Model the fold of this input.
Amino acid sequence: MIFQRFSSDCRMVVARAQETARSQGHPFLGTEHLLLALLDDAGGYLATALRTPAVDVDDIRRRILSIIGEPLDADALTSLGIDLERVRQVTEEHFGRGALESAGRPAPITGHLPLTRRFKAVLELAARAARRLGQQTITQEHLMLGILDDGGGIAVRALKEAGVQLNELRLTIATHLESDAA
Done:
């Protein structure tokens, strides 16, 4: 399987992507979760490439979260004078038990999350990038190339909206990988 070729850092990114999806209450793993996990990585070449003056990581993160939505924060709502439990109680009285489950407190999601079609495509594109460079191990940089080569989905949408020059980022990462392969 493809995951056997992943570097340990790359496996950790996929695990963080799953945790990100779970924290958002999403029962699937999408490219947006993968990009958020890559952005959260503190080390390595990819982190450096993503933290250039041209790339505002916090802006990309905000854009992704605005696209996929964040779960309601009961403490934040309380600070605004909104009692989420009271809202839940009244809503359930009118619309039935569990009417707000998708908002506020998502049910805990356990186990491995299914991968979206696009996420699977990104993994295949990452493997192709590694093969093209004669590299046996798939790294975080290959995952990012997979996201960029796929060219769609929420991850790419957020990057484009943030003004990231996708071709420049692709070239920077590919050049780095090629120099490592030499």
User: Anything to note?
Assistant: The longest helix spans residues 8-23. The chain has a mean pLDDT of 82.
